Amino acid sequence: MSWYERVWRPWLFRLPADQAHELGKLAFRLRAPWSLLGAAARRDYLALHTELAGIKLASPVGLAAGFDKSADLVGGLSRLGFGYITVGSITRLPRAGNAKPRLGRIPEDQALVNAMGLPNSGLEASIRSLRHLRGVPIPIFVSVAGFNVDELSEAAAAVEPYADAVEIGLICPNTSAEEQLEEIDLFDRLLRRLTSQRSKPLFVKLPSYTSPESRTHVFAMVDMCIERGLEAVCVSASQRLKTSAIAVGEGSLTGRPTFAASVEHVREVAAHARGQIATIGAGGVFTGSDAYQMLCAGATTVELYSSFIYRGWSVAGAIKRELDAELRAAAMASVQDARPQLVRPSSIAL
Ligand SMILES: Cc1cc2nc3c(=O)[nH]c(=O)nc-3n(C[C@H](O)[C@H](O)[C@H](O)COP(=O)(O)O)c2cc1C
After folding, report:
1. Quick check: CB of 70 below 6 Å from ligand 1?
2. Positions of E strands within the chain
3. pLDDT in tens, 266-281
4. Ligand 1 contact, 258 CB (< 6 A)
């Protein structure tokens, strides 16, 4: 057990989750303490060196979008041994988000439930923060979200100069088959617009799927991403959960309970894509063994949020150490060896 798990977590978990989250954010605004506290977590493992979309990473373990929503915590977070950080999701205008409580914990399941409602400082303030970043030792990906094609493409273009890659966070409240068809049209329009203006790697965070129909829909989106030359899709299986713990009565369940389905999603999407686009796996990654399973399922990188809350600031260091041990136990020299050989269609002998 780490120092955080023994001392800090019990104390923080006595506070309402929203309040603990605000405290955490305050702490990560500082850089100096994390340069010291994160020193062990920054240990470098040669076997974990990898690449995503041509971007060199010291490890495939990243921090997922949502923790640093407005890019103002990079100073502290970038000292914790993550291979990269995804900041955002940033929207064109500032958003207050949903009423609190909007974040809850389910400690017995190592899970979180949230209905944050995309609170963030908006494009202008976030770009100010991004512009002032100096000496950040790891790649920064920026997630943008929006409610229509114009908003999303404006946000993507505005953050691109300050990002190593841009991730598009889709808001997909529609569920009926008819609306999904419309969504596909809209998605295609969005990709056309984004790819006509971009000069950096572009990723899409796919919606989760729960039925054969929604899986077909997501696969169609993957095909479009491939067709339009995007570099990666981010895949996870967060679920909807009705709960009185948060004000709006329903939120996204993340963390441990979503791991098995997330690995399956990664396996299916990576097999469908056959190496034509990279897959980023998220959802319940807590240990090196979890990360290893995601990579074996076809992920190029894994990213996490919930385990950061449960395992604390040393989580990336712990997962890297555990993943390195997993690779050694499997007699693999590098993370590349863990990934399945996915055959590109052009290399299939006819
Ligand atoms: C409190 C909270 C806020 C989040 N906010 C965002 C967000 O703004 N944009 C986004 O793309 N994903 C967001 N996510 C989803 C995470 O990026 C990640 O995909 C998800 O939590 C699954 O990983 P995990 O099981 O390791 O938490 C959020 C997740 C949580 C728990």
Report:
1. no
2. 50-52, 55-57, 61-63, 84-90, 103-106, 111-114, 140-145, 165-169, 202-205, 232-235, 239-242, 250-255, 278-282, 301-304
3. 999 999 999 999 999 9
4. yes
